[in-house]
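SAMPLE LOG
Freezer: B-3
Tube label: C17
Construct: single chain, 127 aa
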Amino acid sequence: MRFQQPHAPGNTSPGYPPPGRLVDSGGRKLHLHGSGEGTPTVILMAGAGAFSIDWALVQQEVAGTTRVCSYDRAGLGWSDPGPAEETVEETVEDLHLLLRAAGETGPYLLVGASIGGVYNRAYQHGR
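STRUCTURE (predicted):
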């Protein structure tokens, strides 16, 4: 499925360190911010043009009861750029590779805003 999302330049916050870590995920580094402990691991996916920092207040609250991760899709926030016309399938594969490379374990509870919900549904169907 092709869906073109708007991409902000990588490193949206130059001069500010990422709140999480940059994980090598299939040849590029994606930003993942994990906190809390327990299961399920809640994965927060921002909407179009948004990135992990938009989940800061939610993540802080959820981290009090379980593991929670927010991340920046390719080309957003602190993550390296991806293809100019990134497909849903590529975005889903990025998330899969990122979670594996970062050592995040399931089960996962996927939470998405806006287009993040579309990516979450595709992830669910593809895995």
